[in-house]
Write a sequence for this structure.
């Protein structure tokens, strides 16, 4: 069998109408939540229905999605970069019956325009070896509470939410409108009986962003300077004999105001809003309430087209903390290598 | 009624938003592996801690990546997930599918694995979640027979990904799909056999809206852009106004460079001030579109926090024409990767390396000129390095 064949050629997966209009689309319109039409220079119209997905899908569920796509879309569909399902419909007459079937089968339709789209997330306790929290669970619990913002378009702009279950961020949440990030809060415990066999000392020492790990090349062991450790867990990633998970102290932090699009303002990092919330499975009520509060304060205060970060930059962080009722603490003030760039060097600030 | 084995997870079943627990239970009906996965997850929910052991090197013949080894730390309780490895399968670019291809994947996965998947993983791959070591090679062979291949993992080129681009978007300034597919096919060796200092990600977005988050999530971001004036269809501008769009307030006032003027009848753009942010085009796709000369801006160094802090990518090529066979792009990619491979420390991402040795060193190594488009401002400190050739040497008699 030949190897290195690469993925299937995407051109074999495109609906005929896309092949005819490839690179020749003229405009699109959002017709209602979860439904848009793209019109080509030929005048042909392709309808897209976007539906939510749990991302973790059983093969039988995928087959059900295939059944639907075969019934209404000649078997063509795609997924978005945020794990939504998109049904691609060439025949306008099939749009209404598709929407009816999706409703009957309880697929949420939405996530387009000024809405909340699906939450990008990582594996969590389902399949990861370094998580500080679960991923699918908090996402499901949260989407249940903010569902209405997925199926409507009543927000000032779209709100991109992402969850990463540890600082490795395979979900790269660091530029999201709202990021939910699993964190540890206690130092790793080096097991120096196993470290000599399991770990490379220079790699383990180099893995620490704050230089908190000291290696002893003679005994092939390490020690941690607890005062310097900020619990990122990267040493555990390279050295399995430095466990850091701590059921009593691991939890979730909330970050706000990031974006990747260049529209209006430049791409921005998310900034710390809430340093710690407890891991409280199965419904993570503290996390759900905190995120919902931020969304609602944003929804009622931001101007039309303002992303979360644009709204906060306009009104100021002092007002963000005031409006959301989130306490500001010394943990919000950066102390890593670029910290001073975030300190205020002017007398211009707001009282309220 | 029998008592449930998963009382905590049951609370996440059903509801308005589709539940991953429902999918896991559906798979558990057929697969003991999925059933034990539910059991172990319930234990995690009870104890608030993960139950997967660290790593474990497994793979398929001839490849150094694409499979993530995973073992339970409590196999005595959940023997069917003792080994529960993941395969990363390279997705069709743009995540387009014919159902036949998805059904093939499902059949292979029901034969060899847990019946659980992610559509899709963080790198964009199809994630086949959980199989045993003895099934890996056969599963890979069956996937190959159906036209699928593994994606990247470890210190390799990770599976490149692209936005929907010209497939279904009027704003596409480059063919993001073809560029991504071409790169993917050209660098199969670099994807499958990890030989870099660390991971390297490439993402292609066809316009500055950046729907694949390339600027934040890839070491090399390729983002479509244009030169020249934004064409205006004044009739369509009037139609948007008539339909209730407040052009002054919602379009002109939110333009970051204030380069637009609307007099109630006609829209005027001072294109020399435009920085191509997309806001006005996003709001009025029928009336405005990207300008005539299309290409890409290339940016380097984006990454998540570990180790030295998160970085957003930096402009290194303000404008490059991108047309098949993408020779200029691929020459540059190889120069970048060669320099990085020779210069970086182990587990040093390219952004961190550039931060350590300086952008000027990088630019010289890969043969790119310094341009004002690369910076927000020139430096504010006087700690300036000079090259030997900048300095007048004393003549030695």
């Amino acid at each position: 069998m030949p190897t290195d064949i690469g993925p299937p050629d995407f051109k074999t997966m495109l609906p005929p109408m896309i092949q005819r209009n490839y690179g020749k689309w003229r405009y699109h319109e959002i017709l209602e939540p979860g439904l848009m039409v793209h019109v080509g220079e030929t005048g042909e119209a392709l309808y897209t229905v976007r539906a939510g997905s749990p991302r973790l899908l059983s093969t039988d569920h995928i087959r059900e999605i295939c059944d639907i796509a075969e019934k209404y879309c000649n078997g063509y569909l795609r997924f978005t970069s945020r794990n939504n399902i998109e049904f691609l419909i060439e025949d306008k007459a099939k749009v209404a019956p598709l929407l009816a079937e999706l409703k009957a089968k309880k697929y949420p339709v939405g996530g387009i325009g000024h809405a909340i789209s699906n939450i990008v997330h990582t594996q969590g306790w389902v399949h990861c070896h370094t998580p500080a929290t679960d991923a699918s669970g908090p996402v499901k619990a949260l989407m249940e509470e903010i569902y209405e913002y997925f199926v409507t378009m009543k927000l000032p702009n779209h709100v991109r939410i992402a969850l990463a279950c540890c600082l490795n961020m395979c979900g790269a949440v660091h530029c999201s409108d709202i990021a939910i990030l699993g964190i540890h809060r206690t130092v790793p415990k080096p097991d120096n009986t196993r470290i000599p066999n399991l770990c490379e000392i220079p790699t383990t020492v180099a893995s620490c962003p704050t230089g908190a790990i000291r290696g002893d090349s003679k005994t092939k062991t390490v020690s941690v300077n607890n005062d310097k450790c900020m619990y990122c867990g990267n040493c555990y990633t390279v050295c399995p004999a430095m466990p850091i998970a701590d059921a009593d102290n691991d939890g979730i932090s909330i970050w706000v105001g990031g974006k990747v699009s260049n529209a209006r303002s430049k791409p921005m990092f998310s900034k710390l809003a809430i340093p710690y919330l407890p891991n409280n499975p199965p419904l993570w009520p503290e996390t759900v309430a905190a995120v919902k509060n931020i969304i609602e304060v944003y929804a009622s205060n931001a101007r039309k087209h303002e992303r979360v970060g644009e709204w906060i930059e306009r009104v100021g962080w002092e007002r963000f903390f005031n409006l959301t009722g989130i306490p500001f603490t010394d943990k919000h003030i950066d102390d890593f290598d670029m910290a001073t760039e975030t300190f205020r060097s002017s007398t211009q600030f707001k009282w309220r | 009624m029998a008592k449930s084995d998963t009382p905590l997870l049951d609370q996440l079943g059903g509801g308005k938003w589709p539940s991953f627990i429902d999918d896991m239970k559906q798979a558990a009906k057929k697969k003991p592996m999925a059933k034990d996965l539910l059991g172990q997850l319930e234990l995690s929910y009870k104890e608030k801690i993960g139950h997967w052991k660290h790593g474990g090197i497994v793979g398929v013949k001839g490849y150094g990546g694409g499979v993530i080894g995973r073992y339970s730390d409590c196999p005595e309780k959940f023997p069917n997930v003792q080994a529960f490895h993941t395969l990363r399968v390279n997705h069709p670019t743009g995540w387009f599918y014919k159902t036949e291809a998805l059904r093939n994947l499902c059949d292979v996965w029901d034969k060899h694995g847990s019946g659980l998947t992610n559509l899709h993983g963080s790198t964009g791959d199809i994630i086949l979640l959980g199989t045993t070591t003895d099934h890996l090679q056969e599963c890979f062979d069956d996937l190959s027979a159906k036209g699928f291949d593994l994606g990247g993992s470890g210190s390799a080129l990770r599976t490149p990904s692209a936005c929907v681009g010209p497939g279904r978007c009027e704003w596409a300034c480059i063919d993001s799909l073809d560029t991504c597919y071409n790169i993917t096919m050209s660098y199969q060796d670099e994807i499958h056999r990890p030989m870099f200092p660390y991971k390297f990600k490439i993402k292609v977005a066809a316009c500055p809206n950046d729907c694949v988050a390339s600027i934040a999530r890839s070491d090399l971001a390729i983002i479509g852009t244009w030169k020249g004036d934004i064409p205006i269809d004044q009739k369509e501008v009037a139609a948007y106004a008539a339909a209730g769009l407040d052009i002054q307030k919602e379009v002109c006032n939110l333009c970051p460079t204030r380069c637009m003027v609307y007099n109630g009848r006609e829209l005027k753009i001072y294109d020399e001030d435009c920085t191509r942010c997309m806001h006005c085009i996003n709001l009025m796709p029928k009336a405005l579109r990207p300008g005539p000369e299309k290409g890409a801006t290339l940016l380097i160094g984006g990454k998540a926090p570990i180790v030295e802090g998160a970085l957003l990518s930096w402009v290194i090529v303000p404008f490059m024409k991108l047309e098949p066979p993408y020779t200029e792009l691929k020459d540059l990619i190889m120069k970048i990767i060669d320099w990085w491979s020779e210069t970086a420390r182990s587990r040093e991402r390219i952004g961190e390396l550039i931060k350590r040795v300086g952008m000027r060193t990088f630019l010289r190594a890969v043969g790119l000129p310094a341009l004002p488009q690369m910076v927000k401002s020139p430096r504010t400190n006087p700690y300036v390095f000079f090259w030997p050739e900048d300095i007048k040497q004393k003549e030695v008699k």
